[in-house]
Amino acid sequence: MTFNLQSLVPRHIARMKPYTSARDDFGGSRENRVFLDANELPDPLVGMPPNINRYPGNEPAMLKEKLAAVKNTDPAQIFLGNGSDEIIDLVMRCFARPGKDQVMIFPPTFGMYAVRAEANNLEVQAVGLDEGFFVSHEKTMQAITPKTRLMFICHPNNPTANTQPAEVITRILESFNGIVVADEAYIDFSPEKSLLPLLARHPNLMVVQTFSKAFGLAGARIGVAYASEEIIATMDKMRCPYNLGTPSIELAVKALDNHASYRLSALRITRMRDKMAQEIADMPLVEKVYPSDANFLLVKTSDANSLYHYLANKGVIVRNRNHEPGCAGCLRITVGTASENRRLLDAWKKYGSSGGEQDKTCDAAGEEQLKERRVMKRRSTSETDISLELNLDGTGDVHIESGIGFFDHMLHQIAKHGMIDLDIIVKGDLETDPHHSIEDTAITLGMAVLEALGNKKGIERYGFALPMDESSAHVLLDLGGRSYLKWDVVFDSSHIGDIPASLFGHFFRSFTEAAKCNLHVTATGEDDHHKVEAIFKAFARTLRMAASRNRSGIMPSTKGVL
Ligand SMILES: *Cc1c(COP(=O)(O)O)cnc(C)c1O
User: pTM of this prediction?
Assistant: First the structure.
């Protein structure tokens, strides 16, 4: 089949002339010019960011260029929307005629497609997904009519979390005369590849991505469409001028510059997702946890409504998908932080034992809970990229990937014996040596502890540890705000595990500096390996003691501040 885009463009759009804004004429450089053309305020108000008084200039072009480089495509093949939502709506308005044409969707899927179709007076053709939530090529081909202009394939699909095989999508692209929109909102969580490379061969493909999910910018409202220049030009002509705000665009550029940290975050989410899937499988009412390529889980239960209300009563809000076709009994659950996920699982575990739906007590009310001291930290240098999540009031839930086996083992001691939830991923220059990775992990951990301690009101402040095992380690700690390390430890060997022995003192020095604490460490023993382990365990115990809170709320200092 031959695809002819112009045959899809409604006549009134083909004819229309786009609005040209003041900025279109002299968009870029503000150098040596005064701009009295757009009725803007000449200066921002007090406290506002610079240039916010101006309409966006070349910022969208800058973002497109960055995206083109990252995605290996051309800026002219990129459209920026106010969220994918604007794109979904606009593609319908550009290529389908209200009251005449049809839009095909594959339920259960993202509700927005049908809503925007209805808003644009387009008939929705629903072709249900097959067993396993797969698009059927055969059913799709049979359902296509001459009025079918657009097709929305969600890849991975919301709410079923699976990805469609690329060959099915390719076959549809080859035999369909309209535009196939592949919505890749969740592609960064999927082991499957983006369909972007198919753009070169398929002029009727549009790939939609977003900054709302893996890039963590849902509040900024930025969606991106990739398609042929012709399709993009039509959408650009139809969109409202300045459809994205400058602060949003700047945030997107920043997020792209911070590419490594977004990869680490996606990695962490998928890892937690897989762990959560296993734990949910053992929860009351659960019949099935569907495999997920996204940052959420679809869970089939024997009573979705009751469980949904029970969890909501406990303050845990999930999405009830019970009434979606093919999703009877299903809840959709987003992967949250480690402690949010634990809150879900703790509440769920108790379902039934406390009377299920009848239980109307809310945990948070009544008993006054001290707020969890939880911190996420990212620290990137040219040598390391560290992503760390810490909860001082955890249970010792731990995941460490430093690339250095023995160091992982020691950080485990801190989490387990400190009752600290600790999730650390280190990407370091290990081909040089472990020095940077260990030092920077210590700094990041110290910064995180300091931040988690907050104003330090009500903490015990001091900690000490007693001899342990056949080696003995004494660790004294003061979280008082000044950095000092007294390191009274001698090792016999040059290396312990795979780490130069001198780096252990270095680790604690970097930690005390970043966490602004006093630390005195002495250790004796026969075996260096045991000695180090005793130091880390004792340190963990000491930290737990000093960071623990009484309910006095009193600043543990005669000076009144720490
Ligand atoms: C979350 C989501 C989006 C993102 O929409 P934005 O408007 O970009 O925030 C797009 N498609 C699907 C299927 C989603 O679930």
Answer: 0.78
